[in-house]
Amino acid sequence: MSGSGNPQLYRPCDVFTAMGRCWVLEDEFSYSINPNLRNIAYVHNTMRQEWAWLLHEQEMFYDELVGYKLLVPRRLASQMPRDTIKELRKALNCIREESDRMKIRLNRYQTQVDIRESVECKLYEHAQYMQSLLADPINQSDVEMSDEE
User: Fold this and answer.
1) Which of 33, 42, 56, 88 could hold 82 in an S-S bridge, CB 3.0 to 4.6 Å?
2) What pTM, to 2 d.p., does this model score?
């Protein structure tokens, strides 16, 4: 289960993929599969770095969604406590999910734009292929997420 190349490490995307989810975010952070190493300072620091990176990514996704006038999913992770490693782990799981769904929403929008452009250029086969991607249940995982009001 290691997309990181090291059988002793896993990336968060490995967990989501193992559960049958499509993971679209880039994932640079790896963690040890050894449960005895879950609470060491190195892991805590890595988690804090991942949090900062995901928060930055989420802000960029938010700006893009607003710029395209798309519905913006609720962002609850930033309101969660992160004082302990257990709280940080929960908040990380939440922000990973939120950010991934925001990215999927942006990908779906871009696919719709590509479909319109393909039809305008009379590239019907390409448009049909892109439409099939859009209809794929894997690319619809953002449907369950509630939107900001």
Assistant:
1) 88
2) 0.81
